């Protein structure tokens, strides 16, 4: 007896997750009549965090749908901007996304970051406990059921990573309000309050300071400010108008 088959078409935006043979048009796939469509899609390599609508013979179905012989399945990407209901929008990044974490914090986006590899179970548990969207390039991590929410980071370029996250989630941008080191909130500070962190030349040349209310780190418009300002201006010019 021939095994039951469905025909699956994966959207071009998700093609990088599947083998080359499945990247163009609908292809046949054997099903067992027991596994859910969500399981089938994941078995092809597509994290469910990246899936928006699942269509079976043209109608939307849940990931719990059990595909039957002869069905035509279309896998569509998430719609942008993606809304994450149930909690304020905030993120958790794994050890490989440190630059992206600092840039999101620079823009005032609530971003937790693990600077050491604490392992997938601990990351997923923190995502759930703090209701943070897990950002990662690790597909295995994004498949963990205990995640609050997650998203695959498609690029290895920090510039493109930032654009992708801002375009996908449309977070509120409040530049210069968070500590890029620890994610704490910044407050205005006097020179005397941060004097122990300043070199002699800095004390002589600068008068305007901020300090992290959590870790105490001091900030001023130093040598790298123009580079940071450029990142902020690009983000605001491209994304702030849509919020």
UniProtKB/TrEMBL annotation:
Superkingdom of the organism of origin: Bacteria
Ubiquitin Mut7-C domain location: 4-82
Protein name: Mut7-C ubiquitin/RNAse domain-containing protein
PANTHER family: MUT7-C DOMAIN-CONTAINING PROTEIN, MUT7-C RNASE DOMAIN-CONTAINING PROTEIN
InterPro entries for this protein: Mut7-C_RNAse_dom, Ub_Mut7C
Record Pfam families: Mut7-C, Ub-Mut7C
Domain Mut7-C RNAse: 90-231
